[in-house]
């Protein structure tokens, strides 16, 4: 979880009196992710072979391929070129990607008189409801002192866009799940309207078949608490289990709570953590392969792979959540009792 002053550049040097601190041992979450990664070594190898020869059946079952093919055909698309060397995409990739990125915001702590402090990333899944990680929003009490900034990004000329901040309203709706590391929280209105009316929303789709192993995914996030970024192309799903998807996207601290999309901009997973690259002695490494220390900043840390909770499993947990009627109505809106087919 990143902590940066509002608007701070994560690459800025530390104060003169700051002392380099070596990286500590893995956290429990990092250890759990690393164990699941080790357990999926066969899948990772199969996916590498599938990419190498362009044959999806080396990494996916016949049923999975059929399900994916049928889902694409319903959208007027065909299952081809997913693992080909041709990285070209339809022009609509850009416009649809921009629409999918608008509901993504920077989750911040709002405790006056201090400036806003970056904590992670979140995404609107209904006009007034945001999804992020449990470790970003662990409790309603934490959420009451936090909010989300939309439009925290650069414009086409490279200038900083003005952004808008909305407080969280956990009294209206808050629900969290530690196992899958996600939380949902109500968001205050912008000038009398829920923020999703301006910024749009990302639809949660319960059905599987949204992506295959070896398929490219795209992540919209605020790495290091910085302005919004998009990680595309060199990111592939390499393994999965019933709850988690593992992929090679270049995510960083501050990316926690970011949506992971397929090339049709359907949300596949909620990013929650990565595996820091470590040497034989367990010391975290930077991108140059040298020991990483805290004074280098989180952006310098190297990661082996990343993991996110499957959207289909998040939807199931939300459907089963016991909530009061107003909160239930907000979540039902996100789950698409109107259109999650």
Task: Describe the structure in your own words.
This protein is of the alpha+beta class. It has 2 domains: 28-98 and 205-315, Thrombin, subunit H (Beta Barrel); 104-202 and 318-335, Trypsin-like serine proteases (Thrombin, subunit H, Beta Barrel), CATH 2.40.10.10. The protein is 23% helix and 22% strand. The protein contains 8 helices and 15 strands. It has helices spanning 28-39, 41-53, 62-74, 92-101, 140-143, 196-199, 311-320, 325-335, and strands spanning 4-5, 104-109, 117-126, 129-132, 146-150, 164-167, 174-177, 182-186, 218-221, 229-231, 237-240, 244-247, 259-261, 267-276, 303-310. The strands form 2 sheets. Strands 1, 2, 3, 4, 5, 6, 7 and 8 form an 8-stranded antiparallel sheet that branches. A hairpin with a 2-residue loop joins strand 3 (117-126) and strand 4. The longest helix has 13 residues, at 41-53. The radius of gyration is 20 Å and the shape is globular. Mean pLDDT is 87; it is low at 1-22.
Quickly list its features.
alpha+beta; Thrombin, subunit H
Shape: globular
Please, how many helices? Answer: 8
What is the strand content? 15-25%
- How many DSSP-defined strands? 15
Helix content estimate: 10-25%
CATH-assigned homologous superfamily of the largest domain: Trypsin-like serine proteases
CATH hierarchy class name of the largest domain: Mainly Beta
Structural class: alpha+beta
Low-confidence residue ranges: 1-22
**Series of secondary-structure elements, N-terminal to C-terminal:** EHHHHEEEHEEEEHEEEEEEEHH
């Amino acid at each position: 979880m990143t902590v940066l002053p509002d608007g701070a550049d994560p690459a800025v040097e530390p104060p003169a009196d700051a002392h380099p601190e070596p990286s500590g041992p893995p956290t429990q979450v990092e250890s759990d992710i690393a164990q699941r990664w080790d357990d999926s070594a066969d899948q990772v190898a199969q996916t590498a072979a599938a990419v190498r020869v362009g044959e999806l059946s080396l990494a996916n079952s016949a049923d999975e391929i059929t399900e994916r093919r049928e889902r694409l055909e319903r959208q007027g698309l065909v299952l081809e070129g997913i693992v080909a060397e041709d990285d070209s995409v339809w022009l609509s990739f850009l416009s649809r990607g921009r629409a999918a990125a608008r509901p993504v915001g920077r989750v911040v702590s709002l405790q006056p008189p201090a400036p806003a402090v970056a904590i992670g990333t979140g995404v609107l899944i209904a006009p007034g409801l945001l999804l992020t990680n449990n470790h970003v929003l662990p409790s309603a009490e934490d959420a009451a002192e936090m909010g989300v900034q939309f439009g925290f990004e650069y414009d086409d000329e490279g200038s900083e866009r003005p952004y808008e901040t909305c407080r969280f309203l956990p009294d209206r709706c808050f629900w969290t799940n530690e196992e899958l590391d996600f939380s949902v929280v109500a968001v205050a209105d912008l000038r009398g309207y829920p923020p999703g009316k301006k910024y749009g929303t990302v639809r949660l789709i319960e059905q599987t078949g949204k992506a295959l192993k070896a398929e490219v995914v795209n992540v919209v996030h605020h790495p290091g608490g910085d302005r919004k970024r998009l990680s595309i192309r060199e990111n592939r799903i390499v393994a999965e289990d019933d709850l988690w998807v593992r992929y090679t996207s270049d995510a960083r601290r501050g990316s926690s709570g970011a949506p992971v999309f397929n090339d049709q901009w359907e949300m596949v997973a909620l990013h929650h953590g990565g595996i820091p690259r470590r040497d034989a002695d367990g010391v975290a490494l930077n991108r140059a392969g040298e020991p990483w220390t805290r004074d280098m900043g989180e952006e310098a840390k190297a990661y082996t792979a990343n993991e996110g909770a499957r959207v289909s499993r998040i939807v199931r947990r939300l459907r089963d959540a016991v909530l009061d009627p107003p909160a239930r109505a907000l979540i039902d809106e996100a789950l698409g009792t109107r259109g999650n087919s």
